[in-house]
Write a structure and sequence with these properties.
It is built from six helices and five strands; from the N terminus they run H-H-E-E-H-H-E-H-E-H-E. The chain has helices at about 1-20, 25-90, 110-115, 125-140, 165-180, 205-215, and strands spanning about 95-100, 105-110, 145-150, 190-195, 215-220. Helix 1 runs antiparallel to helix 2 and helix 4 (about 125-140) crosses helix 5. It is an alpha+beta fold. About 55% of the residues lie in helices and about 15% in strands.
């Protein structure tokens, strides 16, 4: 648009020059001033465009470096995670417990029915025995630990102690975290989260799916 305006001014100056006496000196001076102003604006616009282009190139380089570093970090983590998984699963996992790697770390999935009676945060005797077996392995890693409580989508009884599945899942996470600490895991490395029915592994449309979603996850984080 600015180039068009400059061209227009140049045409105007040329026309005035050709017309000679038909144009006053004032009109000619005015056209020259407008041309100079537009040339300055064009130079400023080109300089701004150059600055923006340099900024884009800088961002592209940073993005490329970050992507390369992220890929390297992920590859390193996958190797380390495999080693952690081998250590944590050494000798086999207790019944009702499975393990998997995630981008956050290594997760023990503990079946909900193994740990808790329906609607309760009281850990069963079998659940305590399982957690004792896991506590030593968790403590040996020396990494941060997060205990996540999950439920199915079945509405909780309003006559019970808890107002919602979210409330129940948080209470269960607290119970597991406290028991792990009692079993030797450093308290300053343990945190909890309750998700209720809001982070299902599978659909809640079948009894099997609901059973899979009633669980406690113990995440051993990759960041020490």
């Amino acid at each position: 648009m600015r180039s068009f305006s400059i061209a227009r001014s140049l045409i105007l100056v040329s026309s005035l020059s050709l017309l000679g006496g038909c144009a006053t000196q004032q009109e000619l001076d005015s056209a020259l001033v407008e041309t100079d102003n537009l040339r300055e604006q064009l130079a400023e616009a080109r300089a701004e465009l150059a600055r923006r282009q340099a900024r884009i190139e800088d961002l592209e380089i940073r993005l490329e470096n970050l992507t390369r570093q992220t890929s390297t970090d992920r590859a390193d983590w996958l190797v380390e995670a495999r080693e952690i998984a081998d250590r944590l699963a050494q000798g086999g996992l207790p019944d009702g417990v499975s393990g998997r790697q995630t981008d956050e770390g290594f997760v023990f999935d503990v079946e909900g029915t193994l740990l808790f009676p329906t609607g309760s945060e009281e850990i069963s005797a079998a659940g305590k025995n399982t957690l004792r077996q896991l506590a030593g392995r968790i403590q040996a890693e020396g990494r941060p630990v997060r205990v996540d409580g999950h439920t199915d989508s079945q509405p909780i009884s309003r006559q019970g102690r808890y107002k919602s599945n979210l409330d129940l899942s948080a209470a269960r996470a607290v119970a597991v975290a406290e028991f792990l600490v009692e079993s030797g895991v450093s308290a300053n490395r343990v945190s909890i989260a309750g998700f209720g029915e809001h982070d299902p592994k599978t659909s809640n449309d079948t009894p099997e799916g609901m059973a899979n979603n009633r669980r406690t996850e113990i995440l051993i984080k990759k960041d020490s």
